[in-house]
Amino acid sequence: MRRKLVVANRKMNGSLSSNKAFLEGLLAGTHDYPNADYSVCMPHPYLFQAEAMLKGSPITWGGQNMSRYESGAYTGSVSPGMIKEFGCEYVIIGHSERRQRGHDTDHSIGERFEVATKVGLKPIFCMGETLEEYEEGITDVVTIRQLNAVIAEIGVKGLANGVLAYEPVWAIGTGKAASPEHAQNILSFLRGHIELLDADIAESIRILYGGSVKADNAAKLFSMPDIDGGLVGGASLNTDEFVAICQAASNAYKN
Predict the structure, then answer these.
(1) Binding-site annotation: residue ranges for substrate
(2) Which domains can be identified in the chain, with CATH numbers?
(3) Distances (CA, A) of 178 to 11, 129, 131, 167, 181
(4) Which among 161, 190, 209, 243 could disulfide-bond with 29, CB atoms 3.0 to 4.6 Å apart, if both were Cys?
(5) How far apart (Å, rounded) are the C-alpha atoms in residues 106 and 117?
(6) What is the pLDDT of residues 68-126, one digit of tens each?
(7) Residues 183-208: pLDDT tens digits?
(8) Are 41 and 51 in contact (CB under 8 A)?
(9) Can you tell me which residues form the catalytic site (predicted)?
(10) Sequence ranges of the binding site
(11) HEC readout, 20-62
């Protein structure tokens, strides 16, 4: 059985003092929940703090985005190598907020996936449909297009070096999570598509759900066979709420 992974996407939130309180609470709160994996994706200026506080613990950390270039005249950008130097294990790529405001494209996200793995980072690749696309009933078309763009860049076996995350745009930050059944159907569909290309990769790759994951819906979401954890946004700003989600992930583990 694939171990659950719960990732805190703290977005553009935090300060030295509030980060310290959150990370201390996370370290203490997850101590008795060893049957899942946990990671915190911080704003770039605070990666040093995450490394200092989490190094040597079971909790990993990561960045929220990165350039597709390794170096150069790209003022304001952060390279994958820079993120890796702070001990990061993960980096989020393809998040809808970057697609909408950062002008990311399916192709450029595929390039990010490849360069992340070259330096030893595990990309958390986000895909998902807008409300309009959801209402049109084309979630499958949209997510497969996004997934295939990455596969075209790195090959299906390259997916093994990262994590996938289905994040319907209409559920992010709205409080309206996808139903566990809807999320399961989409993740099963995505896994089935990968299985057509490589059954071993399909079986082993972790696919997360993101979009208004909360303490009161986490257990039901994590009970679904193809949901391997959560990419958590708003609830990661509340230590107790996030720890409760981690508890649900640990409890979902079956020997």
Answers:
(1) 9-11, 173, 212, 233-234
(2) 4-251 (3.20.20.70)
(3) 21, 12, 11, 9, 8
(4) 243
(5) 17
(6) 999 999 999 999 999 999 999 999 999 998 888 867 899 999 999 999 999 999 999 99
(7) 999 999 999 999 999 999 999 999 99
(8) no
(9) 95 (electrophile), 167 (proton acceptor)
(10) 9-11, 173, 212, 233-234
(11) HHHHHHHHHHCCCCCCEEEEEECCHHHHHHHHHHHCCCCCEEE
